[in-house]
Amino acid sequence: MTIRHTGGCLCGAVRYEAEGEPLFAGVCFCRDCQKASGSGFIPFMAFAAAKVRVSGQTRVVVTKAANGGDAHRNFCPTCGSLLFGGIVGVHDQHTIYAGTLDDASAFEPRFAIFNKSRPAWAPLPEGLQVFEAMPSS
């Protein structure tokens, strides 16, 4: 039986489904993710683009990523919920923001990145591999 991760925005205008186990899952404490989420971090799960289906229209915000490239974040134009990273039909993988999952217990982070930017008030989940910045490939 194939695992399916479903989720969507606050108002329900955008829904997604990701099939299978994530390629990786973690939490990002970079300042960009803090500002984009209005929180201390973004929890995310990555999936191959071919395993992700999106219904409803999103808007994309493009900002500079820590590596100097572009970061593409999709949000619902109706309610403003931040949903996933990557451009549908262009990128080969998408990072789904775990706070938008229907079943939040499906999120199991394995690592934390940009720990150097983690606010003192944001707890670091136990048992994660921790990187002070973006790990090299």
As laid out across the biggest beta sheet, the strand order is 6-7-8-9-4-3-10-11
Give the N-to-C terminal Cα separation. 32 Å
Strand content: 35-45%
The 3D shape can be described as globular
Q: Output the CATH homologous superfamily.
A: glutathione-dependent formaldehyde- activating enzyme (gfa)
**Count of structural domains:** 1
In the CATH scheme, what's the topology name? glutathione-dependent formaldehyde- activating enzyme (gfa)
Low-confidence stretches: none
Care to count the β-strands?
Answer: 11
Q: So how many helices?
A: 1
Largest sheet: number of strands, sense, barrel closure: 8 strands, mixed
Radius of gyration: 14 Å
- CATH architecture identity: Alpha-Beta Complex
Helix-strand string: EEEHEEEEEEEE
Helix and strand composition category: mainly beta
Mean pLDDT: 94
Helix coverage percent: under 10%
Tell me the name of the CATH class: Alpha Beta
Question: Could you write a compact summary of the structure shown?
Answer:
The chain is 5% helix and 38% strand. By secondary structure, it is mostly beta strands.
Write up what this structure looks like.
- This protein is mainly beta and 137 residues long.
- It has a single domain (4-130), classed as glutathione-dependent formaldehyde- activating enzyme (gfa), CATH 3.90.1590.
- The chain is 5% helix and 38% strand.
- The protein is built from one helix and eleven strands.
- The chain has one helix at residues 31-37; strands at 4-8, 15-19, 24-28, 42-48, 52-55, 59-64, 70-75, 82-85, 93-97, 111-113, 129-130.
- The strands form two sheets. The chain has an eight-stranded mixed sheet. A three-stranded antiparallel sheet has the order 1-2-5, with no helix packed on it.
- The protein is globular and about 35 Å long.
